[in-house]
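HUMAN: Now follow C-alpha cell order:
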Amino acid sequence: MAGNFSFDQLKKAVSSGEIDTVLACIVDMQGRLAGKRFLAQYFVDSAHDETHGCNYLLAADIDMEPVPGYKAASWSKGYGDFVMKPDLATLRRIPWLEKTALVICDVLDHHTHDDLPHSPRAILKKQVKRLSERGYIGYFASELEFYLFNETYDSARKKHWQGLDTASPYIGDYQIGITTKEEGVMRRLRNEMEAAGIPIENSKGEWGPGQEEINVRYAEALDMADRHVILKNGAKEIAESEGKAISFMSKYNYGLAGNSSHIHNSLWSADGKTPLFFDKQADWTLSTLGQQWAAGQLKYAKEFTWFLAPYVNSYKRFQAGTFAPTKIMWSEDNRTAGFRLCGEGTKGIRMECRIGGADLNPYLAFAALIAAGLAGMDEKLELQKPFVGDAYQASRLPEIPKTLRDATETLAKSKMLKQALGEDVLEHYVHTANWEQFEYDRRITDWELHRGFERY
C-alpha cells in the first residue's frame, strides 16, 4: 500500500500552499477511480478519517445507470451511503494535475465499518489475507496496452469512432523511430508516473499502429492494483492535456490488434526475500508450490475468465494469429499460450496469464488468479506438461470462452469462486455480467445497420 507521500508531508505541503486539492477515490466495479475533490485543508483537518458516497456506485453499469436487481443496493433500499475510508499509505502527489494529491479509499459498510464485501478492493484484500495466513506474499505485475490517437475524445466522438487518426500510421512494434513521434505523451507518462510513486520500467510500441505498451515494476498484489488504476486514469488525463486520446478497449477495431493486460504473478516468502516458485532441481525450475499454483489457474481458467474479460467487446480480442490467446494451456515461452512461464531458471520465475484485456478491473482479476492458485495448492494438483507449437492450430486444447454469455454461465456455476469470494459477492458480479449482456442484446449496432438497412 505504498504511495510516495506521508500524511505529515501532506500537512506541510498544504500549509505551504504546495497542495490545495486532494482526490479521495474509490475503485468502482469497472476499475475506474470515483470520488471527491477535497479542499486540501479540509481533508487534512477532517476528511482524512472518512467521507461518504452513494452505494449505487458499486451497483451501476459503465454508463452510471443504476442497475436493478442487486441485493446490496437498490431503489427499494433507497440507495444509501457507504463509507469511503482513505488508506493514507496510498497518498501520492499527482504531477500532471496542479497542486494535487490523491489517496485510494477502502469502501466500508455505513453501519458496521467493515469492508464492503463486493467492493473490488475488499475482494482482493480478502485473497491477499488468505496468502498472508499461509506465510506468502503475492507479487504481481500487469502490462497495459492501449492505442494513442491524434484525436481528442471530442473529435473521436464526432467521427463516431470511425476513421480515427492513430499516433503512427503503421505498425511500429519495438521500432524506436516510430515511438519517437509519440514521445510527447509517452515521455510524460513514464516520468510523471514515476514522480507519482508508480515505478515505470519501460514503454514500447506494440503490434498496432499507434499502439503502446507500458510496464510497471512488480509489487505486492494490492499495491499493483492501485498502481494499475491510477496509471489508466492518469494516462487519459495526460493524453487529453496534450490534445490526444487513449483507448484501453480490448478491441476497438476488428482489423487491428487488441489491447491486452498480461498479468505476471508469483509467490514469495512473508519477508519478501525468498522466491517460492524457484527450484533448480524441479521440472522447468518451477517448484512444487509453483506447479500447483499454475495447475489451479489452468483448471479454473474458464470459471474466472469473466474477471479477465468483463464486457461483450472483451471477447472480440480472442482471435487466432493476433497474439491474443484462444486456448487454455501453458507453455515455457510461447506467445500463443493462454499461460506462459517466464524467467525460467531464475529467481524471477513466474506465470504470465495472457487472457486478460486492458479493460479488466485489476482487483478482480488478481483476486481470481489468487483464488485459483490457492485452490490448486489445496487440491495438490499436478501441472500438465507444457504445450509446444502453435496453440491456435491445436484443436484438442480447451478453449477460452468465446463470448460473454459463455463466460457468465461458467462464472455462475463456479463452486471454487463461490467458496473463495463468498456466495453474495459472486452473485453480485454474475448479475453485473448478465446486465452487460442484456444491454448489448437489446441495442442496434452499426454492423446491423450496415448489413440490414437496405438489404433485409
Notes: The longest helix spans residues 221-241. The mean pLDDT is 95. Residues 412 and 430 are 6 Å apart (CA to CA).
